[in-house]
Design brief:
Helicase, Ruva Protein, domain 3; three-stranded antiparallel β-sheet; 5 helices; 5 strands; binds zinc ion; acetylation
Length: 228
Amino acid sequence: MPEGPSVRKFHHLTSPFVGQQVVKTGGSSKKLNPASFQSLWFQDTQVSPSSSGGHASHRLVLHFSSGRFLAFYNCQMSWSSSPVVQPTSDILSEKFHRGQALEALGQEQPVCYTLLDQRCFSGLGNIIKNEALYRAGIHPLSLGSLLSPRQLEVLVDHVVEFSTDWLQGKFQGRQNHTQIYQKEQCPAGHQVRKEAFGPPGGFQRLTWWCPQCQPRLPPDEPEQAQLS
Ligand SMILES: [Zn+2]
């Protein structure tokens, strides 16, 4: 699943074509006939990172009346109804609703589950989850209901800050710098732990955390209880 900054960059690159007409098409795709785009108007471009998908190697080229063209490579292409992502839950939208995000995180469930719930945090993927939790000093399995309002605020701050910084880095050709994701040691030199966590019956995602920098809440619960 692409994370927010990746698809947001795509959105930024395609936006200038909105309002233009397709005058010529090219490429090949098994699912879509490129010629079917001929003479259509490019009306909108939307970020919908929640759409999961397999790998595809289609190619589609759209030439516009302006003389410029868009070429899509290795894209998953399909016809779909309107995306359902609300801008209020899009972590990179100026309409992102902080209060709504805080309320979702405060639920009585591990915060690492809530962060990956695309209905609450559209665009938030596994890298952002791991990095924001580490930076906020919060154990991934901490129940949101046991965290203080201040801790939840700090977590949302790190989600937005890391995502925004990652997006800016993409435009500047800079690698995003991770501190915990796929690391063996945290920046303080502690041994990092790695487990797959996810809701019962749901998708289990690899999670990296530092037991020392990210103490568990509640501290006495055995960790096995949360493993699938
Ligand atoms: Zn540490």
